[in-house]
């Protein structure tokens, strides 16, 4: 079994990232609280928790938790556990073992210790239930500027649908599509969207859900999960503040009156959005480019759950197209 060794009377910073395909995993250390001090490179007030809910994300440091080894003796050992939140599954998997442990052992450099298994006890906190991310009210004060533009990404599912042959008869093949703003993404493999903008072309907005910020401005985006499972949504290139979230859906007539958290919103690049919920994120559109926005479950991307935030297209058009064929 894998093993980590830490000295006694120390403060150890552990960084956790969910590199699997499942949207939410729990991590915990038996009989030790973890003090969250950072989420996606955003410093947070030290918050003691028994378990950290880690959403599937590409960022190198999703969460940092400080582990205190004070009061422990050389040779003491405990389990560090990673466990799938099985409540996020749409169906049961009776043969699945949802937990993977490793051993954390107290040892100074040079100590040779017997590799005995720990007798530590797991926390009693539930490891199933709401398929949600960390409570977003635990961070340091940070007040984003007021938005100058409000846009919406609506996520929904089409299907399962059954394909038909040329005679219009069912061929028994079912498929599923995901949409953003009723658009299923189609790949631009040989004509990248960025290259289209550089060449002065207008992008085909029937093939991708696109939000455009023309100037350096503050943009609010409402993301709604209308009828799918939990999605870990990720935006490339621009961290965003999580300003508000709730169950249900919101329309244009209610967005302006939402109660936003401008005191201490969490700055993230990925968020988990359960089914039937919405979230309002805010960002400063100051990095020109075409920034991908997508669900980080890969087969959801392949089924079309992919959009983009285009920032300052007039600046992009001043770039030089490198030319040549793409590899």
UniProtKB/TrEMBL annotation:
Listed A to Z, the keywords are: Metal-binding
Q: Does the keyword Plastid apply?
A: no
Q: Which gene encodes it?
A: FGENESH: predicted gene_3.339
Question: What GO molecular function annotations does the UniProt record carry, in alphabetical order?
Answer: copper ion binding; oxidoreductase activity
A Pfam family reported for this protein in Swiss-Prot or TrEMBL? Cu-oxidase_2
Which family is it part of? Belongs to the multicopper oxidase family.
What SUPFAM superfamilies has UniProt attached to this entry? Answer: Cupredoxins (SSF49503)
From the Swiss-Prot or TrEMBL record, give the protein name: FGENESH: predicted gene_3.339 protein
Q: Which domain of life is it from?
A: Eukaryota
Q: Where is the Plastocyanin-like domain?
A: 2-82, 208-313
Checking InterPro entries in the record gives: Cu-oxidase_2nd, Cu-oxidase_C, Cu-oxidase_fam, Cu_oxidase_Cu_BS, Cupredoxin
Q: Which PANTHER family match?
A: ADR239WP, MULTI-COPPER OXIDASE
